[in-house]
């Protein structure tokens, strides 16, 4: 009699991250010129997560100088396909580069 060995992996729970995004960066993502996000690694980003990007009226630098946090109402959902965590290749510790795609299915569970 042959026995079968079954390996069960815990189901990954995808997270949705709501993020404010500078106007030019948001527009580049919408047009497809930009396919990544550079972010502080403070949310536990993982492959398969969803980013909900909300376009701001002002840049982060303008807001740091006193402009109000105002959203334009434009939003974009993208899927995280790959996570590169620093420190590696000049990327500092505590930062990530997220490869993302619009309308892409989440990556398969490993």
Map the helices and strands.
Elements: E1 16-21, H1 23-31, E2 36-40, E3 50-56, H2 60-64, E4 71-85, E5 95-102
Parallel strand pairs: 1-3
Antiparallel strand pairs: 2-5, 3-4, 4-5
Task: Walk me through this protein's architecture.
By secondary structure, the protein is mainly β. Helix content is 13%, strand content 37%. The chain has two helices and five strands. The chain has a five-stranded mixed sheet with strand order 1-3-4-5-2. It is globular, with a radius of gyration of 18 Å. The two termini are 29 Å apart. The mean pLDDT is 89.
Short note summarizing the structure:
This protein has 110 residues and is mainly beta. 13% of the residues lie in helices and 37% in strands.
Helix share bin = 10-25%
Which structural class best describes the helix and strand composition? mainly beta
- The protein's oligomeric status is single chain
Helix tally equals: 2
Strand content: 35-45%
Calculate the mean pLDDT score and round it: 89
Unreliable residue runs: none
Order of helices and strands: EHEEHEE
How far the N terminus sits from the C terminus, by CA atoms, comes to 29 Å
Gross morphology is globular
DSSP strand count: 5
Strands across the major sheet, in which order? 1-3-4-5-2
Which key terms come to mind for this protein?
mainly beta; 110 residues; globular; 2 helices
């Amino acid at each position: 009699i042959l026995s079968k060995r079954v390996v069960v992996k815990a189901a990954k729970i995808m997270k949705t991250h709501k993020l404010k995004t500078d106007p030019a960066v948001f527009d580049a993502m919408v047009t497809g010129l930009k396919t990544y996000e550079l972010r502080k690694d403070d949310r536990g980003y993982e492959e398969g997560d969803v980013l909900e990007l909300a376009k701001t009226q002002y840049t982060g630098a303008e807001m740091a100088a006193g402009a109000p946090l105002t959203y334009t109402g434009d939003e974009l959902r993208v899927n995280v396909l790959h996570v590169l965590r620093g420190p590696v290749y000049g990327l500092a510790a505590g930062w990530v580069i997220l490869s993302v795609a619009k309308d892409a299915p989440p990556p398969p569970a490993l």
